[in-house]
Design brief:
Blueprint: H1 4-18, E1 22-31, E2 34-42, E3 52-58, E4 64-69, E5 80-87, E6 95-102, E7 112-115
Antiparallel strand pairs: 1-2, 2-5, 3-4, 3-6, 6-7
Amino acid sequence: MKTPCACLLGLAATVAVAGEADVVEVAVSADAGGYHFQVTVRHADEGWEHYADRWEILAPDGSVLATRTLHHPHVNEQPFTRGLGPVAIPADMGEVRVRAHDSVHGHGGSEQRVRLPR
């Protein structure tokens, strides 16, 4: 029989394995409807209890401009790419940040800064 302490240590080790979700690549294009983003995320998804569950496009001031919800784990598909668009972004904004989020750690992995095409 495992002691409660041993079980908690095992859980902590499991959580640490997957780490935070990283944005590894962003492609952005523009048309009359707005901006279209293709974002590649890497995260050691472990299943429904710990997976990359969204990515966000942020203005330079940190406000969220758009969110792409990821509706399921990508255990056997790493890294993975998902799109979002059209996204309305103010005309005077020349750059955005893209960050990922996972269901255990929240934000904190690698982000990407992206210059917007004109």
